[in-house]
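hi support,

uploading two proteins for the ticket. first:
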Amino acid sequence: MVQATSAGLHGVPKEDLLDLVEALRGVMMAGRRKAAGSEHDKSVFALLSQLMTAGSLRASELAERACLDLSTVSRHISALESNGYVSRTPDPDDGRATLLAVTKAGQKLVRETREQRLTMVASALKDWSDADRADLIRLTRRLAESLENL
């Protein structure tokens, strides 16, 4: 249960919390609108990135890492497989299961998409000072760490 006080929640003014949530939402929405590709492509990119980082995984493990329902991941994996971005191999620990891996074509897609996104963010930050960019990185990492530690 979140503790409410006269100062807000956990001593943080509620207006600050609302402003932060709106600012983060604005960043995510602007990034999605400006990123190349369809919404489907963006979901697929997220799964490919997870899989590329983790290595071979079962679909259930990928769903858990991506915080998605297994049925959603299964649909995306089918599309990824038919497009040649993901391959399946038997799981050596369980003959009934398969492991998913990113193919060379999938790795190329992830690299190209990351480059496009980096270019977009670089363009957005081009007029920022080194100190402002460093502050953004430091504070964003701190927020992510604090959220992980809840």
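and the second one:
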Amino acid sequence: MKKLFFLALLVFSLSVIASAQPRPIEKSANPNAKPAPSSFAAKYEGGLFGFNDKTEGTLKFDDENSRLVFYGKTQKEMFAIAFESLLVVYPNSDSVTSTTGNVVSHIPLPGAGLAGLLKEKRRYLVLQFDDADADVKGLVNFKLENKELLDSVIQSLGAKAKLTQRGDSYYRPRTPKSSI
């Protein structure tokens, strides 16, 4: 009986050790992603110091000045984020009940509650950056139309900012601190 117990313990220990082996980081770039357009519609969802209101506008790659610029509804430049200040660029999505589904689900009819199952997927471009003006790290969210646009923007922005890819995201590796 003791031998069986120790054998089972040994098998369990080996399986835990074998599953804890580090694996190389997989790069899952979307090879079908088209290059991002030079400008595209986006909704600013917040996050930047000094800009609290959500607003629709246009994001534009300013390759000449190495920055991503957000223009408001009036096509005036609201703010820009330099490529070199980007730390992490990644996609995010949220599945929410559509407005129609929410309204119909509250109608007092049999079966109307099933309309609450109508979901829509919202796609966000999330940028973490180092704000040199305020000496803080910032996080900005932009709502984009669809997954194809989001994938192409992330891939283009990652390449333009010279970031390292990890899965669907891009990041700037830390520079090792030198010991004095």
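thanks. also noticed: The beta strands are 39-46, 55-62, 67-71, 77-82, 86-97, 119-131, 136-144, 164-166, 169-171.
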